[in-house]
Amino acid sequence: MRMITAAAAAFLAMPLAGPLVALPSAAEAASGPPMGWSSRGLGCSVSEAAVRQAADALAPLAPLGYRYVVIDGCWQAPQRSDGALAPDPGRFPGGIKALADHLHGKGLKLGLSLSAGTRACSGGGPGSYGYEAADARQAKEWGVDYVKYDWCSIPTTDFPGKNVQQIAEALYPPMRQALGDDVVFAMNNEDGSTVPWLWGKNARATTWRTNVYNRPIPDGYPSMVDIWETNQLRADHAGPGSWADPDLLQAGLGGMTATEYRTQFTLWAIGAAPLILQAAPDKAPPAIVANPKVIAVNQDRLGVHGTFVKSDGWYHVLAKPLENGDRAIVLFNESDRAATLSTRLGDARHRVEDLWTGAITSSEGELAAQVPAHAALMFRVSESREQAPPLVTFEVDPGELGADRPSVLEPGRTGEIVTRVTNTGATGRLRDLRVTLGVPEGWQAVARTPATTGRLDGGATFTVTWAVTPPANAARTTYELTASAAFAGGSQPGSAVVTVAQAPPSGRSHLSDVPWTAVKNHFGPVEKDTSNGERAAGDGRPITVEGVTYAKGLGAHAPAEIEYYTGGRCSAVAFMAGIDDEVGAAGSAGFEVWADGGRVAYSGLVTGTMPARAVTVSVQGARFVRLVATNGGDNATSDHVDFADATITCE
């Protein structure tokens, strides 16, 4: 994890009891997407004490823009008091106004969730349907600065002949009008049928949700990317003062890696999305959420939602024009393997600042970098004659675009790893270039070609081939190789992830006895020689399909993928495909075999009322083989799939 910048560190070091931070004016607050923290992660355990504690932890981040403390449900009493909203006396004994005053004293602002329907979404409590003016007045009297307006318990029967979009267009504007423009209005009607991106700006919504289904963002990389891609489809509808909202930031929750959390923050920043933390503010990693230069891109007063320069589904280049004429550019590698991404900057000399590392380089027209798997790099680019070293692209184990897995080395056998240095910026010559490659303890790495050169002209590339040998007892897992390209006046680090794996032995082996290289499963782990069972590891039962029990096999829950390294030395895969009897007659799935990038076998639809179906297929020459189970088109809850008696035959 990279160190936090000095400016952000200074903000985080501010004492909580220090001078009060002046609140921005309404115009200033509306100049960029809202930033802050949401209580969603607390659910109905939220309380006045918990909110005050979160506010104390958020206060040091207020100078960076994190000002809104949003109570996301479960704050209301079950019923109105004399027709007015009231806080739950047990959870919020001091009342909402006192809490708002407390936050304002810390330079923070208060947000509350309300519902456009008859009841609140969480914790019971009344909705604002028919009480819009009264509830808006009450919220403003309390000092509420932000209203998250939910979409729950909607009385659709009161709107005969109107579809969901038309009902939403009738219910949301009255609350916005009653609140006035000094209060942030976050439309949380994430049901895709309300299509808020088509009319949210006209309704003067500060933010509007872009999900197409009514579910909060999960803390996982695939879901985060899916939500981001959906958000990008709404980019044309967003703009200054009316922002596309792909939901909360997950950094600090624990379900993703530091790289993946940094990617989410980068994508939300260039998309001019609200930056609202879900993790407790003291758990959100400051090296990610407190980078002032990335935040500055998000808050840029031009207010443009970054859009694609190019994208092929795995590799994305995005750009966002900035107020001073600069551009923010993001290189995002969605795939599971490092890849080199590039874009043209134009025919001029450019200053290129990496906003995550702080490195400043120059380029005559191209921006390129090796981007780790699941990573997003952000650069600020400006036309400038500023003297800076040329931009260097340092690739370690570069793969072909489209390769979606790390390179494989076999234990005890020598393989080749390539490093490649390119003088991409071409604004000067690199001198005395020396490349080194670091490997784990016990490994060997020897340069097969020269690892030094006296000069590297603009646009030229220097390649070194390395013989790399893992020890015979190396664990079958992934490893990181580190590298350095040092030259007169500078250096650049590099790295690559490789997998140590071994092809199955000669002859016929049960796949449950062979280590896999990658696995995905819908619920719980894939089990060896038992059914999937429930979600816990090791809770499966004997593999049984229509009364026939199998001693060997793999129990999974579709959709599932199980990948094996075969090294081009295996010839056939065979198994019996079935839905395990533990789910009765329920469940349906399709069973597939993939050899490298192509599907070579499909079972057809298999249901819980069918006997197991035999699948046998050639995988001759494949380096990787995957067993795949797909959902049969119904609810996936009962899709307990068995690859019964699964075997592989190798040379």
Automatic annotation (TrEMBL):
Residues spanning the signal sequence: 1-22
EC number: 3.2.1.22
Membrane-spanning parts: none
UniProt superkingdom: Bacteria
SUPFAM superfamilies: (Trans)glycosidases, Galactose-binding domain-like, Glycosyl hydrolase domain
GO terms for biological process, alphabetical: carbohydrate metabolic process
Gene3D superfamilies membership: Aldolase class I, Golgi alpha-mannosidase II, NPCBM/NEW2 domain
Keywords from the UniProt entry: Disulfide bond, Glycosidase, Hydrolase, Signal
SMART domains per record: NPCBM
Gene Ontology molecular function, alphabetical: alpha-galactosidase activity
Catalysed reactions, semicolon-separated: Hydrolysis of terminal, non-reducing alpha-D-galactose residues in alpha-D-galactosides, including galactose oligosaccharides, galactomannans and galactolipids
Domain Glycosyl hydrolase family 98 putative carbohydrate-binding module: 505-650
Family per similarity comment: Belongs to the glycosyl hydrolase 27 family.
Protein name: Alpha-galactosidase
Taxonomic source organism: Nonomuraea terrae
